[in-house]
User: Which sequence fits this backbone?
């Protein structure tokens, strides 16, 4: 696996779909396994299979989950080889719990997702979004990438938190939760908006799943959600009859 890839033309298959991305840039896998990059003066992105041209429309009156990847959707730090294969340093399955999250959110159709992971800085919002299963990808309404000004000297956990706080303040979203493993320097009044996962369990933790379900019940039960839940209950009763 080469640490420097002068011209990246990546192709991988996730969720039964082909995802392709190419960009002229130097991409380096740092010693800690994270993907670091130095953009060229005129980066050029090619088309991505089955990709929406723009993020889904956002409605900031609805609940939002700021979603990290590592330590949330899978256990371990991810890296990408020159063929576009996403590998975890510990050998676990990439995006192991992505479908689980989609299932947990299914009864709450109003919940939107804003990408807050480090992947958006290297791969961009569109490609990163397209790595998710349809049940999550269709909820993505943006990312925190544009809220990075002046934060380069902060450590990663604090930088990601500050980007989330800037995004929430700018958009005016009131019901939001950050789902991430790397957080630091969270204001005391905002801890209620952060669900910190365990790096060795991610969303596989039953405790974390219960905490997420509780937040959803308290913050995402609008009329449409209740209709979905009633329909699901009727289907369960019909199946048991």
Assistant:
């Amino acid at each position: 696996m080469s640490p420097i890839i002068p011209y990246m033309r990546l192709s991988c298959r996730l969720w039964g779909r082909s995802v392709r991305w190419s960009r002229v840039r130097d991409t380096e896998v740092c010693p800690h396994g994270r993907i670091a990059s130095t953009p060229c003066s005129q980066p050029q992105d090619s088309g991505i299979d089955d990709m929406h041209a723009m993020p889904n429309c956002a409605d900031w009156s609805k609940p939002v989950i700021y979603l990290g990847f590592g330590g949330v959707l899978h256990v371990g730090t991810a890296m990408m080889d020159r063929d576009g294969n996403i590998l975890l340093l510990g050998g676990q399955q990439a995006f192991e719990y992505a479908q689980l999250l989609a299932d947990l959110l299914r009864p709450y159709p109003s919940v939107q997702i804003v990408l807050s992971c480090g992947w958006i800085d290297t791969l961009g919002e569109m490609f990163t979004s397209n790595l998710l299963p349809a049940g999550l990808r269709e909820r993505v309404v943006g990312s925190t990438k544009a809220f990075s000004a002046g934060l380069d000297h902060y450590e990663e956990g604090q930088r990601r938190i500050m980007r989330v706080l800037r995004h929430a303040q700018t958009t005016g979203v009131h019901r939001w939760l950050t789902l991430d493993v790397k957080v630091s320097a969270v204001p005391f009044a905002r801890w209620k908006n952060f669900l910190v996962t365990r790096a060795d369990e991610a969303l596989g933790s039953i405790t974390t799943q219960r905490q997420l379900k509780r937040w959803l019940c308290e913050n995402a039960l609008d009329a449409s959600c209740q209709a979905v839940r009633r329909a699901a209950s009727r289907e369960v009763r019909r199946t048991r009859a």
